Fold this sequence. Notes:
176 residues
Amino acid sequence: MLLEHIEKPTKWLLADLPPLRRWSSASGKIVLVGDAAHAMLPFLAQGAAQAIESSAVLAICLARVSIAEAIPEAISAYEAIRKPRVKRISFASRENGNVWHLEERPEQDARDAALKMGSIFVRGRFKEKGPRSEDEQEIQMELATGKFQARVFGFDAISDANDKLEQMGVPSINRP
């Protein structure tokens, strides 16, 4: 068997960091995207997808700029549009990691039974780490029903950005 040939197993370290307060420099000359702005654990396979979405949204925000003085406003809009979505996906990824890396056998059995029934949600699977926010509780329930996956994989970042920019009152610029 393959496992018999492993002399000493190792575990790959995954670091989870708190969100950055800002994704840009105060001058607005440096803007972070992807893992530099919003690194996330790999348990939802969304790191690269979120980098692409963020890049597209930043491009849309900057495309609406007609003068250099408006660049900081465009960058602020990029952060305002992207941060809520990235926060939700990062939390969901962390939750998935908790599900896939359960240490105690009864919890693993409950997870496996839930998976067989078509759900990844296992009630009471976590030792409480403090109260969950309403948003976090909603994400957990959406993960359980598949709604979250539909929102992640069916999301149109470009339409969302254009809608939110219109709501913010940022005009679209028609370029030749």
